[in-house]
Amino acid sequence: MHTELPDLLVLAPSPAAVVNEQLEQAYTCHRAWQVAPEQRAAWLAEVGPRIRAVATTGVLGLGAADMALLPKLEIIAVNGVGLDAVALDVAKQRGIAVTTTPNVLTDDVADVAVGLLLASARRIVALDHFVRDGAWERREPIKPALSLRGKTAGIFGFGQIGQAIALRLAAFGLKLRYYQPRAIAGSDVPRSDSLLDLARESDFLIVCAPGTPATRKAINADVLAALGPQGTLINIARGALVDEEALIAALRDGVLGSAGLDVFCDEPRVPEALRALPNTVLTPHIGSLTVETRQAMGQLVVDNLHAHFAGLPLPTPVKN
After folding, report:
1. How far is C-alpha 217 from the chain's CA centre?
2. What is the gyration radius of the CA atoms in the chain, in angstroms?
3. Which of 123, 177, 285, 308 is catalytic?
4. Domains of the chain by range and CATH?
């Protein structure tokens, strides 16, 4: 007997072919990324009434307007841990399950944070250009970098990723502090009284907090000034947590020493003023982009979808 496959709206393909193959085998997949932007609204209005599940990413999410076009929607499976682009209030009202892919990306994102910190403090990208451009051969003077040992790294947001970063930085001989509204029980890392205090007490400020209305532009001009002209800002969380205009001004005017950024306010568009600054290291939101982690994340998306349609407990549900 033929069983009709559930209709799945896929907003972006997985980098792992095996994940895409599993989705194609188990669901009737509607691939949004293959639809031209100007045709998307009409296309979604046509297929929307049949959609029972959505596979999306932390960046793309699923907004209230699109959700309204999906009357039969039962589950939103997010490939990532960010939920700021998902209309969680609407999902809760409608009883729509939401899942993410936690834990499997922690180590890779923490590694990128450390890589950005090393690249920024030790000026690795600038020195790479120094060699390639022939400046070394011309015997031009080399600006000294900053040592990590003995300095303080402040971590804004001390969840799994923040704690994984702390573990790595401790091995470099850095002192550690953190700030988030809720203290972490049992942690031996000191908690600052506020984000502003954390910036004042730190040489390096690493942003790991979730993107929420409360954290939007939390890294403002005052925080950047408190970090200081020798300070370094690292952001592997969400671009919206940083006041990008204030950051550009602080880097340009010497109020802040340097920045290593994997996320931006309007991805993939990065302001020309930011790209032109020599005291920045910029990467295209690739914190979890390794073969191993992207496959594990995609597999969790598949596992959550399979569990839902089999009537089994979801492996990684969002409690909202």
Report:
1. 15
2. 22
3. 285
4. 7-103+291-310 (3.40.50.720), 106-282 (3.40.50.720)
Question: Distance (Å, rounded) from C-alpha 137 to C-alpha 149?
Answer: 30
Map residue 95 onto helix, strand or coil. coil
Question: Using CA atoms in the order 167, 168, 172, 173, what is the torsion angle rounded to 10 degrees?
Answer: -10
What are the DSSP calls for 184-199, one per residue? -TT--SPBPSSHHHHH
pLDDT digits (tens, 9 = 90+) for 146-175: 999 999 999 999 999 999 999 999 999 999
The residue among 192, 132, 187 whose CA lies nearest residue 160 is 187
User: Amino acid identity of 104?
Assistant: V
* Active-site residue flag, 285: yes
What are the tens digits of pLDDT across the range 66-116?
A: 999 999 999 999 999 889 899 999 999 999 999 999 999 999 999 999 999
- Residues linked to residue 235 through DSSP beta bridges, in sequence order: 207, 261
Specify the DSSP element, H or E, that contains 273.
helix 272-275
Active-site annotation holds for 4:
no
Q: What single letter denotes the amino acid at residue 4? A: E
The rounded distance, in Å, linking the Cα atoms of 122 and 317 is: 40
For 132, counting Cβ atoms within 10 Å of its Cβ (0-12 exposed, 13-18 middle, 19+ buried), the class is exposed
Question: What are the C-alpha distances in Å from 228 to residues 165, 210, 222?
Answer: 22, 24, 10
Candidates 238, 244, 294, 308; catalytic one: 238
Residue 252 is among the residues annotated as catalytic for this protein: no
**The pTM is what?**
0.89
